[in-house]
Structures are given as C-alpha cells and as structure tokens.
C-alpha cells in the first residue's frame, strides 16, 4: 500500500522517528527486533 500512496510511507516514517523504532516493521512482522 505504501508504494501506491506515498503519504503512508511518510506518515510511518514520522511516527517511527517520534517513537524511536520502526513502526512499519512492527506492523508487517508483528514484533520488534532487538
């Protein structure tokens, strides 16, 4: 979906920066890698 809608990628990038971890990876894989 991010490939079709650049705003999705931008939003996840902003959220990831604020949270300090890769939110996109979390939503895709279901867990964070340490």
From TrEMBL:
Enzyme category, top tier: transferase
MF terms in GO: [acyl-carrier-protein] S-malonyltransferase activity
Key words of the record: Acyltransferase, Transferase
Lineage top rank: taxon: Bacteria
EC number: 2.3.1.39
Protein name: Malonyl CoA-acyl carrier protein transacylase
Species, as recorded: Escherichia coli
Encoding gene per record: fabD_1
């Amino acid at each position: 979906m991010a490939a079709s809608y650049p705003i999705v990628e931008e939003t996840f990038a902003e959220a990831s920066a604020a949270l300090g971890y890769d939110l996109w990876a979390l939503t895709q894989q279901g867990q964070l890698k340490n």
